[in-house]
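User: Here's a chain of 107 residues. Predict its fold as tokens.
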Amino acid sequence: MFALFLNAYRLLTAIWRSWNSPGFRSALLLAVLLLISGTVFYRGVEGWAWIDAFYFSATTISTVGLADVAPQTAIGKIFTVIYIFVGVGVFIALFIRFAKALLQHDD
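Assistant: Prediction complete.
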């Protein structure tokens, strides 16, 4: 349990250190908008419940890709392919910012 709290503290510290960077705020905003847009898309096109649409969006972008929910429509499948490529790039950019903040030393 201690490790969970330690990692949560480190994550919050990274966010705090990164917050003044316009690049970080932009990447974070883009990541949130990407999750919201995917959730809205899957809700509307696939007809999934909000929680299922959000869950699928998060697991798809994070490349976990669990197969318990999958798009059934052609447009849903095409969107998912594009969503993966864009989403992975955005989240990599965000995580690079996190890593830089975590490795930053206060002198």
